[in-house]
Amino acid sequence: YLGDRGYLPNATPRATYAAMISYMDDNIGRLLDLLDELGIAENTIVLFTSDNGTTYVSGVDREFFSSLGKLRGYKGTLWEGGIRMPTVVRWPRVIKPGSESATPSYHPDWMPTLAEIAGWKARPPAGVVVGTPAPVGAERFDGISLLSVLRGEQEMIEREFMYWEFPEGAGQQAVIFGEGGRWKAIRPSLKKKPSVLELYDLLHDPGETVNIAENHPELVDTALQIMRKEHTPSALFPIEALD
Q1: What is its EC class (predicted)?
Q2: Disulfide: which of 4, 29, 57, 87 matches 49 by Cβ 3.0-4.6 Å?
Q3: How crowded is residue 122: how many other Cβ atoms within 10 Å of its Cβ?
Q4: Closest by alpha carbon to 22, among 65, 83, 57?
């Protein structure tokens, strides 16, 4: 794999890609077997997830493997195909096998989750809404603990929003907010000034096919306020349209 230049050419790219998946699966199995052999499987949490969707570079046939289903976008974008990933957690005697949760979450949630499991719980300062980033110097994480969901004590944890920004393609912003993470606002290209904000109903349109921004100006305004508040200028990853 050569990064942005894609995968090295080979005679059977689909078979090679499938072999990589099988190889990973086999080694995860070896890891689980080792936990059993060491006698620590019952006291070990196994977490499996990803940080992005399938890649856009050459050498990957995402249509053939149906890597994204009906989701739009891919790695390097803030469309659902770039950021919506499954997460599988095994925790014997705590998580019921085969159980599911629809609680929207993202990577910043795992630090407070694992910290609480270890016995330390971050508490929001007075006046700070759970699920929003901490003020400078505050003793809490950007994410929220998912422990109550893992234990089956709550079916859904509500939060104010989840925010992303990415410098790829001259800059992108996205925010998911509302009950159950229903609404998704995205600015897919900040090259344009003023950049266009699109709004989608993820409950009924997870493929982000129908932009409903014109029908919900109040939601657009909410999303823009969050985007303005949460953006922090970065010298390493500048977004010219915002900085």
Answers
A1: hydrolase
A2: 87
A3: 18
A4: 65
Domain assignment present for 148: no
Residue 113 vs residues 42, 47, 108, 144, 219: alpha-carbon distances, Å: 19, 12, 9, 7, 30
d(CA 192, CA 234): 20
For the chain, what is the domain count? 1
In a domain, 179, yes or no: no
Residue 22 belongs to some domain of the structure: yes
Q: Which domain holds residue 5?
A: 1-86
Longest dimension (CA), the chain: 61
The answer to whether the predicted template modeling score (pTM) of the entire model surpasses 0.70 is yes
